[in-house]
Design brief:
single chain; alpha/beta; 4-stranded antiparallel beta sheet; 11 helices; 14 strands; globular; binds pyridoxal-5'-phosphate
Length: 373
């Protein structure tokens, strides 16, 4: 079985985790938290890192730290993982959806301004599958309308926009370290920022808003702490992040080379200003491919090859049929996002994928296509 994505745990992970067990520093106190925060923030070219329990809580925490809540609107892509929208809903604010564009699979920046109202407080661009958004354009719009920008960089560790790292391009950025992300802590996340106040606020809110005297609380906090054990893994992973990023890029180039003359398959985008890290190697099937996305995925599964569908757009999620969310506007034209959902899937993308495995996946796709002509 070639799985769609597996973590690569061949560095100091076991050694550092063992150290946590030996020293009994297994909760959220311990040196690995600070070491991991420092290492990952430094890698991402920012000043502060605040490690948290997962990527979703990272986004929620960032929004809370910026004071976003009921009555506010936050602009997000409809083509994203559900967590981006859920984090906005947790605050009581309203997500406002923007369609995708086909030449990056990211939010269409030309549609952002038409979604801004007096209630808009922030924009959350998502660097989809490792390709950064056009951040100059987004930051210009935000500046003009006095909005915060929060990067959802959960899929873009190490990606670059005009030579600058994803996560360093906005007020505050959020990462996930779930098992399939570029680096993993099993479950985990981080908020990173250059802003001292935002970092301080995140540290406070992540830990129940504990202050002195202890057990006297002035605001609603959360338990979004990461454990020292997770951070130990995260530090070991960060030591190897450069290798992971390079492997994914090399694997993507190999896929693209082998797939380029397969009829009906479109390979992932890359703008000239972008360093796409290909967190997942996505393909789009167009009309000249003989099978549907679901048929191809099923046929590959039969041959022991794991794939995943592209995201189901948020505006069309059945959860919004609940009258509780009737304030969320799900109408409008989101054709590109629907198109991506209907025709997109990603192929096995682990960092340690071998050339032979890539060849096997491509051969299987070619054979399946040929058998169905
Ligand atoms: C993975 C992911 C998240 C959520 O991260 P979790 O750690 O699973 O909570 C958020 N946004 C995007 C775009 C993601 O891909």
């Amino acid at each position: 079985m070639i799985r769609v994505c597996e973590p690569t745990l061949s560095g100091n992970e076991a050694k550092y985790v063992q150290d946590c067990l030996q020293t009994t520093m297994i909760s959220s106190m311990g040196d690995y938290i600070k070491k991991f925060e420092h290492a990952f923030a430094t890698y991402s070219q920012v000043k502060h890192g605040v490690a948290v329990s997962n990527g979703t809580t990272a986004i929620h925490l960032a929004l809370e730290a910026l004071g976003i809540g009921p009555g506010d609107e936050v602009i997000i892509p409809t083509f994203t993982m559900i967590a981006t929208g859920n984090a906005v809903l947790y605050t009581g604010a309203t997500p406002v959806f923007v369609d995708a564009e086909l030449d990056t699979w990211n939010m269409d920046t030309s549609q952002i301004e038409s979604k801004i109202t007096e209630k808009t407080k922030a924009i959350i661009p998502v660097h989809t599958y490792g390709h950064p958004c056009d951040m100059d354009r987004i930051n210009d719009i935000a500046k003009k309308h006095n909005l915060f920008v929060i990067e959802d960089a959960a899929e873009a560790h190490g990606a670059e926009y005009k030579g600058r790292k994803a996560g360093s391009l906005s007020d505050v950025a959020c990462f996930s370290f779930y098992a399939n992300k570029m680096i993993t802590t099993g479950e985990g996340g981080m908020v990173i920022t250059n802003n001292d106040q935002i970092a301080e606020k995140c540290r406070l809110l992540r830990n129940h808003a504990f202050v002195q005297p202890r057990f006297v609380h002035h605001q609603l906090g959360f338990n979004y702490r990461m454990t020292n054990i997770q951070a130990a893994m995260g530090l070991a992973q960060t030591e190897n992040i450069q290798t992971f990023v390079e492997s994914r890029i090399k694997n993507a180039q190999r896929y693209t080379e082998l797939l380029k003359d397969v009829q009906g398959i479109e390979c992932p985008p890359k703008k000239e200003w972008a360093k796409n890290v290909y967190w997942m190697y996505g393909i789009l099937l167009n009309k000249s491919f003989p099978l549907s996305k679901d048929q191809l995925m099923a046929a590959l599964r039969e041959r022991g090859i794991g794939t995943r569908s592209f995201f189901h757009p948020l505006h069309a999620q059945p959860m919004f049929n609940n009258p509780k969310y009737k304030h969320v506007d799900t109408s409008g034209n989101f054709q590109k996002s629907q198109y991506l959902w209907q025709n997109g899937l990603y192929l096995p993308s682990s960092s340690h994928l071998t050339d032979a495995q890539i060849q096997e996946v491509v051969n299987a796709i070619k054979e399946i296509a040929r058998n169905n002509l």
